[in-house]
């Protein structure tokens, strides 16, 4: 490494009250490299980059950029320093065109309007140069998620940035779009740019990087050349212990159908069509995956199955019983458990204790209530048992669940739902926002439930999660099931095409079988 790195973030501290989000981070970036910042959600990656691009101010520490101290007070100042960030959640105005988004906040509206032809021409030239296929007159809300991401990347380049920060850019992409993005990153570096790539996906980091820095507990714990490390070592650095990279499981022997969905159609909260003629079955003793880019009807499918979203057409059966149109309370009384995609919105009550969260859906049932009174000792014993079995890191059952990490919160939600001994388990985004060690444990627990004969429908945007434990995978796009594939990583390209909206033909479907 040179004596004067292109960028050095030195001993960066940041906290919100008592919550520490950057605990003295030191990071060096060399010019003309792809430097990956690897770590699980909550490790401090996005916070550190938000400080670099002017969204947050550090409590202490300094940034040296191109050999000089850097003090940035806003994202606009960062762009003036040729530093730009493409955020995980896009920063585009949906009802404006691409060109209009590019010139927002860039000066006098009258002057910009006169120069819009020039803006259009420059966007087309840069789009062709980088192979991004961005149309300046396209309205953002009419674009797919992958197209919107290309718009965001070209926006940073349009403003002349030399240092590009890409925050979890592959989270909303198909495998083919991911390959295209990783190739683009290398092309940008070859063109003289420097890229910081934020991710928690080991395979992509290994493919894309020149160097890798691993963050854990809001610190950088290790920096290495990609040629000097391996996925297994990176996983150990992220978690602090060895992690099982492959989960062995035996072929499934499915039993009777526990969930049957026929011709299901429904609308989203805005009244727009979200699901179109969904047909699927889940049998006891199997895990069926639902793969797809986020926003293609997965959320509505989970809500409809759990009674939280009205059904326009179709039929839902649980163990042969028609549950279409039943209320969430009525479905909750059946042999049905649900791990929701957003634990904070639908899975837990943050100010309440672990014990209170552990009985949320069963507080009025034996053994937790008798003669109208809560049985505190039995509730405490039940919660302590869940904590021990699922290795939830907590002081005790009376601790507010808000004090726990995301992974430990998720463990408690999963433990609570499995404690109901359901015949059918609906799971959405099982491993979202949890560390790789907790992922390993929870996936193993899902396999145990499968062996116990439960039917599981696993909805996930993480293909590795689906390939690891599913017996078969259905792919959803624009609210339709477009095909079914086995959990074979050699079929990844096929899954990507289905995710992008290319229907499987009947020959392919017949070859897959059940």
TrEMBL record:
Cellular compartments annotated: Cell membrane
A Gene Ontology term for the protein's cellular component: plasma membrane
Keyword annotations of the record: ATP-binding, Cell membrane, Membrane, Nucleotide-binding, Repeat, Sugar transport, Translocase, Transport
Domain ABC transporter, residue spans: 7-242, 259-503
Superkingdom: Bacteria
Keyword match Translocase: yes
GO MF: ATP binding; ATP hydrolysis activity
Topology of the protein relative to the lipid bilayer: Peripheral membrane protein
Keyword hit for Translocase: yes
Major subcellular site: membrane
Record PANTHER family: CARBOHYDRATE TRANSPORT ATP-BINDING PROTEIN MG119-RELATED (PTHR43790), GUANOSINE IMPORT ATP-BINDING PROTEIN NUPO (PTHR43790:SF4)
Protein name: ABC transporter ATP-binding protein
The organism of origin for this protein: Paracoccus methylarcula
Taxonomic classification: Bacteria, Pseudomonadati, Pseudomonadota, Alphaproteobacteria, Rhodobacterales
